[in-house]
Design goal:
CATH class of the largest domain: Alpha Beta
Bound molecules: uridine-diphosphate-N-acetylglucosamine
CATH topology of the largest domain: Rossmann fold
Radius of gyration: 21 Å
Largest sheet: 7 strands, parallel
Helix content: 40-55%
Number of domains: 2
Length: about 375
Amino acid sequence: MGKIICVVGARPNFMKIAPVMEALRRVAPSFELVLVHTGQHYDAAMNEQHFTALGIPRPDINLEVGSGTHALQTAEVMRRFEPVVDQASPIAVLVVGDVNSTLACSLVAAKKNIPVIHVEAGLRSGDRTMPEEINRVLTDQMADLLLTTERSAADNLIREGVDPARIHFVGNVMIDTLRLNLPRAVPTAKTVQEAGGLANFPTGPKQYAVLTLHRPSNVDDARVLRTLLETINEMSRDVPVLFPIHPRTRDKIERFGLTELVSAPTLLLLPPLGYLEMLGLMKDARVVLTDSGGIQEETTALGVPCITLRSTTERPITAEQGTNTVVGQNRERILAVFRDILVTGGKTGRIPELWDGHAAERVARVLIGRYLPAPKIKVA
Ligand code: UD1
């Protein structure tokens, strides 16, 4: 009844596309799905292990774009995606999140008058220095259907002139993935052991903190990165820290000569982890420190305190209703919030509206309503 091209490019896309494709297959089997991987992320650790763990079908097409400057990466995705679209003649292109691949594929489709479906539309940090913010704003301007995770997103979109009839509040598909996979989360002890960590590193519930760091604003400036790592070292004396490290961050630490700051026995570096390993780490953590968008939402869903090492968030509901505190990069402020969490246990939070494990089904129903012709009623 019509092809829909589903696009993924980078790690945070995988946990969003998995439930959407599953729900479309189940609820709307008349759509033919084509999965395109742009190859923005390509390392096995950033890539294949997620497909396997999340049961995502093998991509029908991999554009193998790889890394590059923003312009080069975006342009290369566009160049390689265009013939795929021409050949497939889809009725729509479905994109998720806010990475460069999201924007590039939306732009190709929109210029060919092919409807763009954006899952996770309308999130805004207000910070245009973030590449993701540019990707979000532009993708939403081109989208035909805008599917949102929290109510504030519709306000943002309407302010930017989007027709409210195209916006649908469906909830958070990433939390579908989290709820489905929680029983399969890998125990932290096993993850640490497999990474060659010391046998006596504390891995029991609430015995450790988790850190992730990869935003250019945190890792591309030597001074900022140094301050953050010094602060983390200080914290790790109170609660040992597990640090699954993004390839970009590892590279910067080496380049800036900061390896000494990740060498303390209380700060354990781990390779980029699979989804089920990361879920295990987060669910038992005393506190999670991060600059990721998705982790702010996942910790809220898990009820685990989260300290966001950025000065803004595009996911305000995690701070208003969830367990998240947005602290920025200031050492004193980070330590104050951290110590408060150690004393009080931090925010308990509540689960936001429609983060109920059924968001992808709602996505599928919206797509049926929009792209499947209503059955013809015979008038006698
Ligand atoms: C991208 C997304 C970001 C997301 C993040 C999750 C954009 C603008 N950014 O950032 O929103 O939070 O993914 O990881 O799309 N690299 C590897 N192996 C890989 C991929 C990357 O070594 O498989 C290294 C390369 O040195 C590369 C660097 O990481 O240059 C950055 O990769 P890139 O895809 O440009 O952006 P991320 O920082 O991963």
